[in-house]
Amino acid sequence: MSASSLVLASGNAGKLREFARLLAPLGIAPIPQSQLGVSDAEETGLTFVENALIKARHAAAITGLPALADDSGIEVDALDGEPGIYSARFASRRQQGQGDQDNNAALLSALEGVPEEARTARYWCVLVYLRHAADPVPIIVQASWEGRVLTAPSGDGGFGYDPLFWLPEQGMSAAQLEASTKNRLSHRGRAMQQLLQALTAASESA
Ligand SMILES: O=c1nc[nH]c2c1ncn2[C@H]1C[C@H](O)[C@@H](COP(=O)(O)OP(=O)(O)OP(=O)(O)O)O1
Ligand SMILES: [Mg+2]
User: How many folded domains does the chain comprise?
Assistant: First the structure.
């Protein structure tokens, strides 16, 4: 990953903050796609992998820069894995508004009456790195993070579903973690560690 020029193919301010912090120690300041005039790509894939590829390719094609994309979401066991790849669109697909707050409210109502022990869930994160839009060997990594869906929001850090995502081992929600702790434990933080290992291996064999 070049230190000077990497487009971050995301419009999510929460992700952008986490990536900035994850990459700062490497001297990399990824450029948010909006700063380069890239609008959100349409996420037409049926997997996190496909959607991350679509987003990375879109940003790389428009900017001519290497691109990093993240497609992520929450898989809730009591909902047969929903909202999954549709996590960002959960409320709007149910005509219950849009955005993080409405998504959280929609998740709470979908889980009404489900007891604590049955509220198991996990975040997934797939990262795709493309050297250029036609890169035939994208680097693709993924990680998950186990937790439980609370019955009411707790904490004001993080973003997305974090106020509802309870971490039994930490005894707090993801929105109550320090940013650095979230990055060490999270699906995104651990996917990033894998990506950096893969990039190092690729540059050593080149
Ligand atoms: O660490 C996380 N903490 C809380 N919520 C999270 C996290 N990671 C993903 N999520 C949720 C947010 C959103 O509802 C969906 C991602 O959807 P996803 O399409 O990948 O991102 P997005 O549309 O917000 O921005 P973009 O596509 O421009 O990167 O999963
Ligand atoms: Mg999205």
Answer: 1
Q: What is the mean pLDDT of each run of 10 residues along the chain (206 residues)?
A: 82 98 94 98 98 98 98 99 98 98 98 98 99 98 98 98 98 98 98 96 84
Q: Would strands 7-8 and 67-76 be described as parallel, antiparallel, or unpaired?
A: parallel
Residue 111 lies in a domain: yes
- Provide the residue range defining the domain that includes 50: 7-205
As annotated, the active-site residues are 71
Q: Is 132 annotated as a binding residue?
A: no
Pocket test for ligand 1, best of 74, 94, 127 (most atoms within 8 A of CB): 74
Q: 183: Cβ below 6 Å to ligand 1? A: no
> 104: Cβ below 6 Å to ligand 1?
no
Rounded Cα distance between 174 and 172, Å, is 7
Asked whether residue 193 is assigned to any structural domain, the reply reads yes
**In this structure, what CATH number is given to the domain that contains residue 159?**
3.90.950.10
- What ipTM was predicted for this assembly? 0.99
**Residue 2 is assigned to a structural domain of this protein:** no
- Residue 85 tokens read as 């790849």
Does residue 54 lie in a domain region?
A: yes
Q: What is the dihedral of CA 190, 170, 76, 89, to 10 degrees?
A: -70
- Of 173, 179, 76, nearest in space to 124 by CA: 76
Does ligand 1 lie within 6 Å of residue 188's CB atom? yes
Question: Which residue CA neighbors atom 5 of ligand 1 most closely?
Answer: 160
